[in-house]
Protein backbone atom coordinates (compact mmCIF):
# COMPACT_ATOMS: atom_id res chain seq x y z
CA UNK A 1 0.00 0.00 0.00
CA UNK A 2 2.78 2.40 0.89
CA UNK A 3 4.58 1.78 -2.41
CA UNK A 4 1.37 2.45 -4.36
CA UNK A 5 0.85 5.72 -2.53
CA UNK A 6 4.40 6.76 -3.27
CA UNK A 7 3.95 5.91 -6.94
CA UNK A 8 0.72 7.89 -7.12
CA UNK A 9 2.39 10.88 -5.46
CA UNK A 10 5.32 10.66 -7.86
CA UNK A 11 2.95 10.46 -10.82
CA UNK A 12 0.99 13.47 -9.58
CA UNK A 13 4.18 15.42 -9.02
CA UNK A 14 5.45 14.49 -12.47
CA UNK A 15 2.14 15.55 -14.03
CA UNK A 16 2.25 18.89 -12.20
CA UNK A 17 5.83 19.49 -13.34
CA UNK A 18 4.87 18.74 -16.95
CA UNK A 19 1.90 21.09 -16.75
CA UNK A 20 4.08 23.79 -15.20
CA UNK A 21 6.72 23.47 -17.92
CA UNK A 22 4.03 23.54 -20.62
CA UNK A 23 2.56 26.70 -19.06
CA UNK A 24 5.95 28.38 -18.86
CA UNK A 25 6.51 27.91 -22.59
CA UNK A 26 3.02 29.07 -23.54
CA UNK A 27 2.29 32.64 -24.65
CA UNK A 28 1.27 33.95 -21.24
CA UNK A 29 3.87 31.82 -19.49
CA UNK A 30 6.72 33.24 -21.57
CA UNK A 31 5.66 36.81 -20.82
CA UNK A 32 5.42 36.05 -17.12
CA UNK A 33 8.75 34.20 -17.20
CA UNK A 34 10.61 37.09 -18.87
CA UNK A 35 9.17 39.66 -16.46
CA UNK A 36 9.90 37.44 -13.46
CA UNK A 37 13.45 36.76 -14.69
CA UNK A 38 14.08 40.48 -15.15
CA UNK A 39 12.73 41.23 -11.67
CA UNK A 40 14.94 38.50 -10.25
CA UNK A 41 17.94 40.11 -11.92
CA UNK A 42 17.02 43.52 -10.55
CA UNK A 43 16.87 42.15 -6.99
CA UNK A 44 20.17 40.29 -7.46
CA UNK A 45 22.17 43.16 -8.94
CA UNK A 46 20.77 45.69 -6.52
CA UNK A 47 21.83 43.51 -3.61
CA UNK A 48 25.31 43.00 -5.07
CA UNK A 49 26.15 46.45 -6.45
CA UNK A 50 24.09 48.72 -4.21
CA UNK A 51 26.40 48.70 -1.16
CA UNK A 52 29.48 49.38 -3.29
CA UNK A 53 27.85 52.43 -4.86
CA UNK A 54 27.06 53.91 -1.45
CA UNK A 55 30.58 53.14 -0.24
CA UNK A 56 32.17 54.83 -3.25
CA UNK A 57 30.03 57.93 -2.84
CA UNK A 58 30.94 58.16 0.82
CA UNK A 59 34.63 57.77 -0.09
CA UNK A 60 34.45 60.60 -2.64
CA UNK A 61 32.63 62.83 -0.17
CA UNK A 62 35.20 62.21 2.58
CA UNK A 63 38.07 62.77 0.17
CA UNK A 64 36.69 66.14 -0.87
CA UNK A 65 36.20 67.29 2.69
CA UNK A 66 39.70 66.18 3.68
CA UNK A 67 41.21 67.99 0.72
CA UNK A 68 39.45 71.21 1.70
CA UNK A 69 40.75 70.94 5.27
CA UNK A 70 44.28 70.28 4.08
CA UNK A 71 44.15 73.24 1.74
CA UNK A 72 43.09 75.41 4.66
CA UNK A 73 45.94 74.09 6.80
CA UNK A 74 48.43 74.66 3.99
CA UNK A 75 47.18 78.19 3.53
CA UNK A 76 47.33 78.84 7.28
CA UNK A 77 50.87 77.47 7.55
CA UNK A 78 52.47 78.68 4.29
CA UNK A 79 50.53 81.82 3.43
CA UNK A 80 53.70 83.95 3.51
CA UNK A 81 55.67 81.60 1.32
CA UNK A 82 54.20 81.49 -2.13
CA UNK A 83 56.42 78.79 -3.65
CA UNK A 84 55.98 76.37 -0.78
CA UNK A 85 52.22 77.04 -0.70
CA UNK A 86 51.91 76.29 -4.43
CA UNK A 87 53.87 73.03 -4.10
CA UNK A 88 51.76 71.81 -1.19
CA UNK A 89 48.49 72.71 -2.92
CA UNK A 90 49.53 70.94 -6.13
CA UNK A 91 50.40 67.79 -4.19
CA UNK A 92 47.04 67.87 -2.45
CA UNK A 93 45.16 68.36 -5.72
CA UNK A 94 47.02 65.43 -7.30
CA UNK A 95 46.06 63.19 -4.38
CA UNK A 96 42.43 64.31 -4.69
CA UNK A 97 42.48 63.60 -8.43
CA UNK A 98 43.82 60.07 -7.94
CA UNK A 99 41.19 59.30 -5.32
CA UNK A 100 38.44 60.74 -7.50
CA UNK A 101 39.51 58.72 -10.55
CA UNK A 102 39.48 55.56 -8.46
CA UNK A 103 35.96 56.35 -7.33
CA UNK A 104 34.87 56.98 -10.92
CA UNK A 105 36.33 53.64 -11.95
CA UNK A 106 34.20 52.05 -9.25
CA UNK A 107 31.07 53.69 -10.60
CA UNK A 108 31.04 57.15 -9.03
CA UNK A 109 28.94 59.60 -11.10
CA UNK A 110 29.59 62.81 -9.11
CA UNK A 111 26.29 62.45 -7.23
CA UNK A 112 26.57 62.36 -3.46
CA UNK A 113 22.94 62.15 -2.35
CA UNK A 114 21.28 58.90 -1.33
CA UNK A 115 18.10 59.52 -3.32
CA UNK A 116 20.04 59.70 -6.59
CA UNK A 117 21.67 56.27 -6.48
CA UNK A 118 21.74 54.23 -9.68
CA UNK A 119 21.25 50.76 -8.23
CA UNK A 120 17.63 51.17 -7.23
CA UNK A 121 15.06 48.53 -8.10
CA UNK A 122 14.03 50.35 -11.28
CA UNK A 123 17.64 51.07 -12.26
CA UNK A 124 18.63 47.43 -11.71
CA UNK A 125 15.51 46.35 -13.65
CA UNK A 126 16.61 48.49 -16.61
CA UNK A 127 20.15 47.08 -16.34
CA UNK A 128 18.84 43.49 -16.32
CA UNK A 129 16.69 44.24 -19.35
CA UNK A 130 19.60 45.81 -21.20
CA UNK A 131 21.64 42.66 -20.54
CA UNK A 132 19.15 40.09 -21.85
CA UNK A 133 18.12 42.31 -24.80
CA UNK A 134 21.81 42.90 -25.69
CA UNK A 135 21.30 46.68 -25.77
CA UNK A 136 24.02 47.44 -23.24
CA UNK A 137 23.98 51.22 -22.78
CA UNK A 138 27.13 51.20 -20.64
CA UNK A 139 26.06 53.99 -18.30
CA UNK A 140 25.65 51.50 -15.47
CA UNK A 141 27.68 48.32 -15.03
CA UNK A 142 28.74 45.89 -12.35
CA UNK A 143 31.99 46.76 -10.54
CA UNK A 144 32.34 43.87 -8.12
CA UNK A 145 33.75 40.48 -9.09
CA UNK A 146 30.61 38.69 -8.01
CA UNK A 147 28.47 41.15 -9.98
CA UNK A 148 30.48 40.55 -13.15
CA UNK A 149 30.27 36.77 -12.74
CA UNK A 150 26.53 37.05 -12.07
CA UNK A 151 26.11 39.14 -15.24
CA UNK A 152 27.77 36.42 -17.32
CA UNK A 153 25.54 33.67 -15.95
CA UNK A 154 22.47 35.88 -16.11
CA UNK A 155 23.11 36.70 -19.79
CA UNK A 156 23.77 33.06 -20.74
CA UNK A 157 20.30 32.09 -19.55
CA UNK A 158 18.48 35.35 -20.26
CA UNK A 159 19.47 36.01 -23.89
CA UNK A 160 18.06 32.70 -25.27
CA UNK A 161 14.96 33.23 -23.14
CA UNK A 162 14.52 36.72 -24.58
CA UNK A 163 14.99 35.45 -28.14
CA UNK A 164 12.36 32.78 -27.54
CA UNK A 165 10.04 35.41 -26.07
CA UNK A 166 10.50 37.78 -29.01
CA UNK A 167 9.92 34.99 -31.54
CA UNK A 168 6.77 33.81 -29.80
CA UNK A 169 5.28 37.22 -29.01
CA UNK A 170 6.26 38.60 -32.41
CA UNK A 171 4.42 35.74 -34.10
CA UNK A 172 1.32 36.34 -31.94
CA UNK A 173 1.32 40.07 -32.65
CA UNK A 174 1.81 39.38 -36.37
CA UNK A 175 -1.22 37.06 -36.38
CA UNK A 176 -3.32 39.65 -34.56
CA UNK A 177 -2.23 42.43 -36.90
CA UNK A 178 -2.86 40.23 -39.92
CA UNK A 179 -6.32 39.33 -38.57
CA UNK A 180 -7.24 42.99 -38.06
CA UNK A 181 -6.00 43.90 -41.52
CA UNK A 182 -8.02 41.09 -43.12
CA UNK A 183 -11.10 42.16 -41.19
CA UNK A 184 -10.65 45.66 -42.55
CA UNK A 185 -10.14 44.24 -46.04
CA UNK A 186 -13.31 42.14 -45.67
CA UNK A 187 -15.23 45.23 -44.57
CA UNK A 188 -13.98 47.05 -47.65
CA UNK A 189 -15.14 44.19 -49.90
CA UNK A 190 -18.51 44.06 -48.15
CA UNK A 191 -18.96 47.77 -48.74
CA UNK A 192 -18.18 47.27 -52.43
CA UNK A 193 -20.70 44.41 -52.63
CA UNK A 194 -23.29 46.52 -50.84
CA UNK A 195 -22.83 49.29 -53.39
CA UNK A 196 -23.20 46.83 -56.28
CA UNK A 197 -26.29 45.31 -54.66
CA UNK A 198 -27.74 48.76 -54.17
CA UNK A 199 -27.17 49.64 -57.83
CA UNK A 200 -28.76 46.36 -58.93
CA UNK A 201 -31.80 46.97 -56.70
CA UNK A 202 -32.14 50.47 -58.04
CA UNK A 203 -32.03 49.24 -61.64
CA UNK A 204 -34.50 46.48 -60.77
CA UNK A 205 -36.90 49.07 -59.38
CA UNK A 206 -36.53 51.10 -62.57
CA UNK A 207 -37.17 48.00 -64.68
CA UNK A 208 -40.21 47.02 -62.59
CA UNK A 209 -41.63 50.52 -62.76
CA UNK A 210 -41.18 50.46 -66.54
CA UNK A 211 -43.75 47.62 -66.77
CA UNK A 212 -46.71 48.08 -64.42
CA UNK A 213 -50.03 46.39 -64.87
CA UNK A 214 -49.10 45.09 -68.32
CA UNK A 215 -48.46 48.48 -69.92
CA UNK A 216 -44.95 49.21 -71.15
CA UNK A 217 -43.72 52.76 -70.77
CA UNK A 218 -40.77 54.34 -72.47
CA UNK A 219 -38.61 57.10 -70.99
CA UNK A 220 -39.51 60.65 -71.88
CA UNK A 221 -36.81 63.21 -72.51
CA UNK A 222 -36.57 66.11 -70.12
CA UNK A 223 -34.76 69.39 -70.51
CA UNK A 224 -33.32 69.03 -67.01
CA UNK A 225 -30.51 66.46 -66.56
CA UNK A 226 -31.92 65.03 -63.31
CA UNK A 227 -35.23 64.26 -64.97
CA UNK A 228 -33.92 62.65 -68.17
CA UNK A 229 -34.31 59.13 -66.81
CA UNK A 230 -37.27 59.66 -64.52
CA UNK A 231 -39.89 56.96 -65.03
CA UNK A 232 -43.48 58.08 -65.51
CA UNK A 233 -46.26 56.66 -63.39
CA UNK A 234 -48.66 54.23 -65.09
CA UNK A 235 -52.20 53.24 -64.08
CA UNK A 236 -53.51 49.69 -64.33
CA UNK A 237 -55.50 48.54 -67.36
CA UNK A 238 -57.90 45.68 -67.93
CA UNK A 239 -58.68 44.10 -71.28
CA UNK A 240 -61.95 46.00 -71.67
CA UNK A 241 -60.25 49.28 -70.67
CA UNK A 242 -57.46 48.72 -73.18
CA UNK A 243 -59.99 48.06 -75.95
CA UNK A 244 -61.95 51.13 -74.96
CA UNK A 245 -58.80 53.26 -74.86
CA UNK A 246 -57.70 51.94 -78.27
CA UNK A 247 -61.10 52.58 -79.87
CA UNK A 248 -62.21 55.74 -78.24
CA UNK A 249 -59.02 57.59 -77.41
CA UNK A 250 -60.17 60.59 -79.42
CA UNK A 251 -63.28 60.97 -77.24
CA UNK A 252 -61.11 61.45 -74.17
CA UNK A 253 -60.32 65.00 -75.14
CA UNK A 254 -63.98 66.00 -74.84
CA UNK A 255 -64.79 63.93 -71.75
CA UNK A 256 -65.86 65.98 -68.71
CA UNK A 257 -63.64 65.92 -65.60
CA UNK A 258 -66.47 64.72 -63.34
CA UNK A 259 -67.37 61.69 -65.43
CA UNK A 260 -67.22 58.48 -63.39
CA UNK A 261 -66.90 55.06 -65.06
CA UNK A 262 -67.61 51.59 -63.85
CA UNK A 263 -64.98 49.38 -62.21
CA UNK A 264 -64.08 47.84 -65.59
CA UNK A 265 -63.60 51.23 -67.11
CA UNK A 266 -60.56 53.47 -67.08
CA UNK A 267 -60.75 56.86 -65.38
CA UNK A 268 -58.55 59.17 -67.38
CA UNK A 269 -58.44 62.91 -67.15
CA UNK A 270 -56.90 65.17 -69.69
CA UNK A 271 -53.75 65.51 -67.58
CA UNK A 272 -53.50 61.71 -67.21
CA UNK A 273 -54.03 61.33 -70.95
CA UNK A 274 -51.13 63.72 -71.59
CA UNK A 275 -48.93 61.63 -69.27
CA UNK A 276 -49.95 58.37 -71.02
CA UNK A 277 -49.29 59.33 -74.60
CA UNK A 278 -46.23 57.09 -74.74
CA UNK A 279 -47.95 53.91 -73.54
CA UNK A 280 -47.03 50.89 -75.71
CA UNK A 281 -48.51 47.44 -75.01
CA UNK A 282 -51.09 45.94 -72.61
CA UNK A 283 -50.19 42.43 -71.34
CA UNK A 284 -53.70 41.76 -70.08
CA UNK A 285 -55.01 41.96 -73.64
CA UNK A 286 -52.40 40.47 -75.96
CA UNK A 287 -54.34 41.35 -79.09
CA UNK A 288 -54.91 44.90 -77.99
CA UNK A 289 -52.08 47.21 -79.08
CA UNK A 290 -51.96 50.91 -78.51
CA UNK A 291 -51.43 52.94 -81.59
CA UNK A 292 -48.05 54.58 -80.84
CA UNK A 293 -45.06 55.35 -83.02
CA UNK A 294 -42.83 52.36 -83.71
CA UNK A 295 -39.60 54.00 -82.58
CA UNK A 296 -41.10 54.53 -79.09
CA UNK A 297 -41.82 50.83 -78.52
CA UNK A 298 -38.44 49.91 -79.95
CA UNK A 299 -36.81 52.36 -77.53
CA UNK A 300 -38.70 50.75 -74.64
CA UNK A 301 -37.47 47.27 -75.60
CA UNK A 302 -33.86 48.44 -75.86
CA UNK A 303 -34.03 50.20 -72.50
CA UNK A 304 -35.48 47.10 -70.84
CA UNK A 305 -32.80 44.87 -72.32
CA UNK A 306 -30.08 47.26 -71.22
CA UNK A 307 -31.41 47.41 -67.67
CA UNK A 308 -31.67 43.62 -67.48
CA UNK A 309 -28.11 43.27 -68.75
CA UNK A 310 -26.82 45.71 -66.12
CA UNK A 311 -28.69 43.87 -63.37
CA UNK A 312 -27.25 40.53 -64.46
CA UNK A 313 -23.79 42.07 -64.64
CA UNK A 314 -23.94 43.42 -61.06
CA UNK A 315 -25.33 40.11 -59.77
CA UNK A 316 -22.63 38.15 -61.57
CA UNK A 317 -19.88 40.41 -60.20
CA UNK A 318 -21.28 40.01 -56.69
CA UNK A 319 -21.38 36.23 -57.09
CA UNK A 320 -17.78 36.10 -58.36
CA UNK A 321 -16.51 38.33 -55.56
CA UNK A 322 -18.25 36.29 -52.87
CA UNK A 323 -16.99 33.00 -54.28
CA UNK A 324 -13.37 34.17 -54.39
CA UNK A 325 -13.40 36.35 -51.25
CA UNK A 326 -12.37 33.65 -48.76
CA UNK A 327 -9.53 32.48 -50.96
CA UNK A 328 -8.32 36.03 -51.44
CA UNK A 329 -8.53 36.75 -47.72
CA UNK A 330 -6.26 33.80 -46.99
CA UNK A 331 -3.70 35.18 -49.43
CA UNK A 332 -3.92 38.81 -48.36
CA UNK A 333 -0.62 40.09 -46.94
CA UNK A 334 -0.07 43.18 -44.85
CA UNK A 335 1.54 45.78 -47.14
CA UNK A 336 5.07 46.89 -46.41
CA UNK A 337 4.11 50.56 -46.14
CA UNK A 338 1.70 49.77 -43.30
CA UNK A 339 4.42 47.84 -41.44
CA UNK A 340 6.85 50.75 -41.78
CA UNK A 341 4.14 53.19 -40.73
CA UNK A 342 3.51 51.14 -37.56
CA UNK A 343 7.20 51.18 -36.67
CA UNK A 344 7.42 54.91 -37.36
CA UNK A 345 4.38 55.61 -35.19
CA UNK A 346 5.81 53.66 -32.24
CA UNK A 347 9.19 55.38 -32.57
CA UNK A 348 7.49 58.77 -32.77
CA UNK A 349 5.50 58.14 -29.58
CA UNK A 350 8.70 57.20 -27.76
CA UNK A 351 10.51 60.22 -29.18
CA UNK A 352 7.89 62.61 -27.83
CA UNK A 353 7.85 60.80 -24.48
CA UNK A 354 11.62 60.94 -23.92
CA UNK A 355 11.86 64.49 -25.23
CA UNK A 356 9.54 65.54 -22.40
CA UNK A 357 11.12 63.34 -19.71
CA UNK A 358 14.82 63.69 -20.51
CA UNK A 359 14.67 67.25 -21.92
CA UNK A 360 16.24 66.10 -25.17
CA UNK A 361 15.70 67.41 -28.66
CA UNK A 362 13.09 65.59 -30.69
CA UNK A 363 15.76 64.28 -33.08
CA UNK A 364 17.91 63.00 -30.20
CA UNK A 365 14.88 61.28 -28.68
CA UNK A 366 13.99 59.61 -31.98
CA UNK A 367 17.65 58.60 -32.39
CA UNK A 368 17.68 57.09 -28.90
CA UNK A 369 14.48 55.10 -29.54
CA UNK A 370 15.78 53.72 -32.82
CA UNK A 371 19.20 52.81 -31.41
CA UNK A 372 17.60 51.13 -28.40
CA UNK A 373 14.96 49.11 -30.27
CA UNK A 374 17.55 48.07 -32.86
CA UNK A 375 19.68 46.80 -29.89
CA UNK A 376 22.64 48.93 -31.02
CA UNK A 377 23.01 50.81 -27.74
CA UNK A 378 25.90 53.21 -28.34
CA UNK A 379 25.59 54.64 -24.84
CA UNK A 380 25.90 58.30 -25.80
CA UNK A 381 22.27 58.73 -24.77
CA UNK A 382 20.72 56.61 -22.06
CA UNK A 383 17.50 56.79 -20.01
CA UNK A 384 17.57 58.19 -16.51
CA UNK A 385 20.19 60.87 -17.11
CA UNK A 386 17.78 63.71 -16.32
CA UNK A 387 14.82 62.09 -14.62
CA UNK A 388 16.57 61.71 -11.25
CA UNK A 389 15.71 65.29 -10.39
CA UNK A 390 12.02 64.40 -10.57
CA UNK A 391 10.11 62.69 -7.78
CA UNK A 392 8.62 60.15 -10.18
CA UNK A 393 12.00 59.09 -11.59
CA UNK A 394 11.70 55.43 -10.62
CA UNK A 395 8.26 55.07 -12.20
CA UNK A 396 9.60 56.61 -15.40
CA UNK A 397 12.46 54.10 -15.50
CA UNK A 398 9.97 51.24 -15.17
CA UNK A 399 7.85 52.69 -17.98
CA UNK A 400 11.02 53.02 -20.08
CA UNK A 401 11.79 49.34 -19.49
CA UNK A 402 8.27 48.32 -20.52
CA UNK A 403 8.49 50.56 -23.60
CA UNK A 404 11.71 48.84 -24.67
CA UNK A 405 10.34 45.35 -23.95
CA UNK A 406 7.11 45.85 -25.90
CA UNK A 407 8.96 47.77 -28.60
CA UNK A 408 11.30 44.88 -29.31
CA UNK A 409 8.29 42.55 -29.55
CA UNK A 410 6.71 45.02 -31.98
CA UNK A 411 9.90 45.12 -34.05
CA UNK A 412 9.85 41.31 -34.19
CA UNK A 413 6.22 41.48 -35.39
CA UNK A 414 7.15 44.00 -38.09
CA UNK A 415 10.04 41.82 -39.25
CA UNK A 416 7.67 38.85 -39.47
CA UNK A 417 5.13 40.77 -41.56
CA UNK A 418 7.77 42.42 -43.74
CA UNK A 419 9.40 39.04 -44.40
CA UNK A 420 6.14 37.66 -45.80
CA UNK A 421 5.65 40.67 -48.06
CA UNK A 422 9.25 40.68 -49.32
CA UNK A 423 9.26 36.92 -50.00
CA UNK A 424 5.97 37.22 -51.88
CA UNK A 425 7.32 40.08 -54.01
CA UNK A 426 10.55 38.22 -54.78
CA UNK A 427 8.70 35.02 -55.74
CA UNK A 428 6.36 37.02 -57.97
CA UNK A 429 9.30 38.79 -59.62
CA UNK A 430 11.23 35.57 -60.18
CA UNK A 431 8.15 33.86 -61.62
CA UNK A 432 7.64 36.82 -63.94
CA UNK A 433 11.21 36.48 -65.15
CA UNK A 434 10.51 32.82 -65.90
CA UNK A 435 13.07 31.13 -63.66
CA UNK A 436 10.46 28.96 -61.92
CA UNK A 437 6.76 28.92 -61.23
CA UNK A 438 5.46 30.42 -58.03
CA UNK A 439 3.12 27.46 -57.49
CA UNK A 440 6.01 25.00 -57.43
CA UNK A 441 7.92 27.29 -55.08
CA UNK A 442 5.00 27.46 -52.66
CA UNK A 443 4.51 23.70 -52.86
CA UNK A 444 8.13 23.08 -52.00
From TrEMBL:
Gene3D superfamilies for the chain: 1.10.287.70
Domain Potassium channel, first and last residues per copy: 114-174, 342-420
Residues annotated as transmembrane: 21-45, 152-174, 332-353, 365-385, 397-418
UniProt KW keywords: Ion channel, Ion transport, Membrane, Transmembrane, Transmembrane helix, Transport
Principal place of residence: membrane
Similarity-based family: Belongs to the two pore domain potassium channel (TC 1.A.1.8) family.
Name used for this protein in its record: Potassium channel domain-containing protein
Organism: Trichuris suis (pig whipworm)
Amino acid sequence: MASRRRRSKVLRLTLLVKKGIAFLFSHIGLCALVVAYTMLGSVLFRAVEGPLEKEVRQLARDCRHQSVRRLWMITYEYNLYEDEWIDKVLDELLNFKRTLLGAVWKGYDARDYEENVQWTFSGAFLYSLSVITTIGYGNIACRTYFGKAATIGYAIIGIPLMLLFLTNIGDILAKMFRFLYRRAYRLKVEMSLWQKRRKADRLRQIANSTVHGGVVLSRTPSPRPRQQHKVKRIHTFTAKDCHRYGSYKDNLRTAPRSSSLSEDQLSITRQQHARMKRTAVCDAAPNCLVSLPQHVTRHVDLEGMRLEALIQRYEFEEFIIRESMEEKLNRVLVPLWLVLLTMLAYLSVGAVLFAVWERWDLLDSFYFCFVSLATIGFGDLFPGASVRDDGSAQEKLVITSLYLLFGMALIAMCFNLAQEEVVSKVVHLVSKLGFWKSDSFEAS
